[in-house]
Amino acid sequence: MNRGRALLGLMVGLAGALLISGATLSSAEEEQDMTAPTAPIFIRICKPNPPTYNRFGAIVNRPTLTVEFVDNRPVAATEIVFGLVARGALVARSKDVGTFSPGVVIKHTYGISGQVFPLGTSFPRCAVLRAKFSDGIVWKNPHPPQP
């Protein structure tokens, strides 16, 4: 009889633990979905291009940032602000204005300051800081990189 009660107590305890952990997992998943929305602009390529110089030290090509991106919303983006991130810090920002049709791969090159070079890393990345769309919606990065 004691054995039966012990087994029953163990089963009730396990069921309670499963319910509690399941509820915690569901809450964490819902919270994560609400606090980490996906950027509506997908960045395919982020390539910072340092300035190049001739043999006399004169600048031949100014520093640029090449970004290839796709608008994932069903409406056209009209303004996008990109950030260049190196070593975890925002080091440059570029703004593009136009009509960027949904689902179309767009590749643009923007001028940036030569002061960001050398980057100090082989793994820079780009982040969408802000995007405005033709339907009036403005998306802001909920966790923008800081300078």
Topology, pairings included?
Elements: H1 2-35, E1 41-49, E2 52-53, E3 59-61, E4 64-71, E5 77-86, E6 89-100, E7 105-111, E8 125-133, E9 138-140
Antiparallel strand pairs: 1-4, 2-3, 4-7, 5-6, 5-8, 8-9
Low-confidence stretches: 5-36
The total count of helices amounts to 1
Note the main sheet: 4 strands, antiparallel
Indicate the CATH class of the largest domain.
Mainly Beta
The domain count comes to 2
Class of secondary structure makeup: alpha+beta
Shape: globular
Overall mean pLDDT = 80
Write down the CATH topology of the largest domain: Immunoglobulin-like
Cα-atom Rg, whole angstroms?
25 Å
The CATH architecture of the largest domain: Sandwich
**Number of E-state strands:** 9
Name the strands of the widest sheet in spatial order.
6-5-8-9
- The N- to C-terminal Cα distance equals 68 Å
- Which H/E pattern describes the elements? HEEEEEEEEE
- What level of helicity do the residues show? 10-25%
* Strand coverage percent: 35-45%
